[in-house]
């Protein structure tokens, strides 16, 4: 039996405008969800309620976690999530009782709620006993750990970077000395950021004295292997867990003495102690085994399964393949990655489309203002990298918000992730937030030799058409970055900096006035005019109404959007299509061709283009001469 007593919470952030929240706690264990009663209008609730989770005779494992959700009770609609956290049950297995445990919570955007405190008590009764007894460990008894979930503590050359139990010695279960058949299945998915250029990489796997290798991938430092190897072994479980698996990535087109790029050695006992005797889609940090201080030499993605008699191979699902990559990283002992901080300065956004229906206009009046709300969008920006994310404040009812905030994310440098994702969201009170657009920054550290730096500059967002529709369409997925966008959906003005040797203390901060003044020259605009002449329009299908063509650049020229003024000169005169006598229709423009022009204002970035053109010319001159 597992009992969870929810005591109280302190300093819950107030998400209501005219009253306090109505907090409640939901506890989830092994898919079973139970919740407390909700407390009316308070930010410091007290529950003192006990939630029981029957175990049905199955003891809890050291990898089991307890999920805690703090929610705001809603009479109409779904309950609003305030914060969430998780508690490992490894400690309660040893002590059977943990009193007034503090649970750290994060908001839905992943930001730690440092001021909010939630206290719970955990009580665990083992199914093999009828009363709660703490587990005492004494040395000298080889059978004392039979009821305790176990992990290998052999002298390994790896360390799990995201594990919170690094360096802790765990008791190991006695291994069988009986010889039996085992099969080791190893799948090599891909490698990233291999050290060097013009590589022809190949991956070798060594288990005992058997060596197998993948096919050679030519001319890339990010190869995709996608190959599976099988190793059949007959030996005892104890002997198997004392052996190693070695992964070696080499350059096949260099001399034998210089062909090795990086290696990684893994203890088989560690894999055998994992659930289902396997590790699934883990990233391995490659290094030079002769010089660990040389740093990372690349990354290799693998899955390893050890199958004994009667074991079934786990499924190789592709769920969350690219999420939270760095927390699934295994690195060799003694190899230190430098801490670093990404500082993203989000200044403003512009030309954001309408995202809410007019029906919600009356609802938002109650929360924000008494006058009519014309700009039906409540934007905020989410900064994501390597499974981490942090978001700006919400600017209500504004299509051209000014955030002026710094977003900070910590990382280990060099990082295996090569994309920074900037998502502009529309906040909704009654439903989930909608995606306005996604901007992606590609970061390259090994190839160019510079820390990731960008801006201050505008990033354009593209996705589905700007015209608001209350009915979801298939093009809405384009707003999430899945495919190339078909329409302009606004832009954001940002700046990215990388600071080595430190981690962020606060995830969010305000931009200083000096930085705001420094970016003013980059926001000055000049007037431009776009001219287009239409020569012919043919092979049209039959239309019952007139046809006209429109030219737009950004929001300028879009006659369905009245945020940038008159767009009447951006469309051709309406014309009825004429049948061509065969299968199609054409527009009878004849010798008079329609012309359109669009006046617009944009920032002048010729100083950047000139520098890039000069560098490109120099490179071509060096190559050819």
Q: Superfamily at the CATH H level of the largest domain?
A: C2 domain
Which range best describes the helical content: under 10%, 10-25%, 25-40%, 40-55%, 55-70% or over 70%?
under 10%
Q: Number of DSSP helices?
A: 6
- The number of distinct structural domains comes to 4
Let me know the average pLDDT: 82
Instruction: Enumerate the strands of the largest sheet in spatial order, edge to edge or round the barrel.
Output: 9-18-16-17-10-13
**What is the CATH topology descriptor of the largest domain?**
Immunoglobulin-like
Overall spatial form: globular
Question: Uncertain spans, ≥5 residues at pLDDT below 50?
Answer: 130-172
Main structural class: mainly beta
Radius of gyration: 30 Å
Report the CATH architecture of the largest domain. Answer: Sandwich
Strand content: 35-45%
Give the C-level CATH assignment of the largest domain: Mainly Beta
Number of strands: 31
How far is the first residue's CA from the last residue's CA?
79 Å
Quaternary structure of the protein: single chain
Tell me what the structure shows.
The structure is a single chain. By secondary structure, the protein is mainly beta. The protein has four domains: 2-124, Immunoglobulin-like, CATH 2.60.40; 179-307, Immunoglobulin-like (Sandwich), CATH 2.60.40; 340-523, Immunoglobulin-like (Sandwich); 524-624, no CATH class. It is built from six helices and 31 strands. It has helices spanning 90-95, 237-241, 268-272, 359-367, 513-518, 606-624, and strands at residues 2-10, 23-29, 32-35, 46-53, 65-72, 80-88, 97-103, 117-124, 158-160, 179-192, 201-207, 210-213, 224-236, 244-251, 260-267, 278-286, 298-307, 329-332, 338-350, 379-385, 388-391, 402-413, 419-426, 434-442, 454-463, 487-500, 508-510, 525-533, 578-579, 585-586, 595-603. The strands form eight sheets. A six-stranded mixed beta sheet has the order 9-18-16-17-10-13. The protein has a five-stranded antiparallel beta sheet with strand order 25-26-19-22-27, with no helix packed on it. It has a four-stranded antiparallel beta sheet with strand order 4-1-8-7. The N and C termini lie far apart (79 Å).
């Amino acid at each position: 039996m597992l009992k969870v007593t929810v005591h109280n919470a302190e300093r819950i952030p107030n998400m209501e405008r005219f009253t306090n929240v109505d907090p409640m706690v939901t506890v989830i264990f092994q898919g079973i969800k139970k919740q407390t009663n909700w407390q009316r209008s308070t930010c410091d609730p007290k529950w003192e309620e006990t939630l029981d989770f029957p175990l049905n005779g199955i003891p809890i494992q050291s990898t089991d976690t307890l999920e805690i959700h703090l929610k705001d009770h809603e009479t109409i609609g779904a309950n609003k999530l305030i914060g969430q956290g998780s508690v490992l049950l490894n400690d309660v297995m040893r002590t059977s009782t943990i009193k007034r445990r503090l649970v750290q919570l994060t908001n839905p955007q992943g930001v730690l709620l440092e001021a909010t405190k939630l206290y719970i008590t955990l009580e665990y009764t083992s199914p093999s006993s009828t009363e709660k007894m703490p587990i005492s460990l004494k040395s000298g008894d080889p059978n004392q750990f039979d009821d305790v979930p176990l992990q290998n503590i052999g002298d390994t050359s790896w360390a799990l970077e995201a594990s919170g139990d690094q360096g802790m010695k765990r008791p190991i279960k006695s291994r069988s000395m009986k010889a039996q058949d085992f099969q080791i299945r190893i799948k090599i998915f891909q490698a990233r950021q291999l050290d060097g250029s013009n590589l022809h990489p190949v991956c070798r796997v060594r288990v005992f004295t058997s060596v197998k290798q993948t096919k050679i991938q030519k001319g890339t430092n990010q190869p995709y292997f996608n190959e599976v190897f099988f190793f059949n072994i007959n030996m005892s479980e104890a002997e198997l867990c004392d052996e190693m698996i070695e992964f070696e990535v080499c350059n096949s087109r260099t001399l034998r003495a210089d062909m090795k790029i990086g290696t990684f050695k893994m203890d088989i006992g560690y894999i055998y102690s994992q659930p289902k005797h396997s590790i699934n889609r883990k990233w391995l940090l490659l290094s030079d085994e002769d010089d660990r201080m040389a740093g990372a030499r690349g990354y290799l993605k693998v899955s390893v399964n050890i199958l004994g008699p009667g074991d079934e191979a786990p499924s190789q699902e592709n769920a969350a393949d690219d999420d939270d990559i760095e927390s699934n990283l295994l690195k060799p002992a003694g190899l230190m990655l430098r801490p670093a901080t990404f500082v993203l300065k989000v200044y403003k956004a512009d030309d954001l489309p309408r995202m809410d229906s007019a029906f919600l206009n009356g609802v938002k009046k109650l929360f924000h203002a008494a006058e009519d709300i014309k700009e039906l969008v409540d934007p905020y920006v989410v900064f994501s990298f390597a499974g981490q994310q942090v978001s700006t404040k919400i600017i209500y009812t504004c299509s051209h918000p000014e955030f002026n905030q710094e977003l900070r994310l910590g990382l280990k440098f060099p990082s295996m992730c090569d994309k920074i994702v900037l998502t502009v969201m529309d906040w909704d009170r009654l439903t989930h937030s909608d995606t306005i657009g996604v901007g992606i920054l590609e970061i390259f550290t090994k190839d160019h030799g510079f820390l990731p730096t960008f801006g201050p500059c505008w990033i354009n967002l593209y996705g589905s058409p700007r015209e608001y529709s209350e009915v979801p369409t298939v093009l809405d997925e384009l707003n999430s970055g899945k495919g190339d966008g078909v329409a302009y959906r606004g832009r954001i003005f940002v700046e990215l900096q990388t600071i080595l040797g430190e981690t962020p203390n606060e995830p969010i901060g305000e931009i200083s006035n000096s930085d705001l003044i420094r970016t003013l020259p980059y926001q000055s605009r000049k007037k431009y005019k776009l001219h287009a002449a239409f020569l012919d329009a043919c092979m049209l299908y039959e239309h019952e109404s007139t046809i006209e063509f429109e030219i737009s650049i950004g929001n300028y020229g879009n006659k369905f959007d009245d945020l940038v003024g008159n767009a009447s000169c951006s469309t051709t005169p309406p014309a009825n299509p004429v049948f061509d006598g065969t299968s199609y229709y054409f527009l009878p423009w004849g010798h008079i061709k329609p012309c359109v022009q669009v006046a617009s204002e944009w920032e002048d970035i010729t100083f950047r283009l000139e520098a890039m053109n000069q560098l490109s010319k120099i490179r071509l001159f060096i190559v050819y001469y």
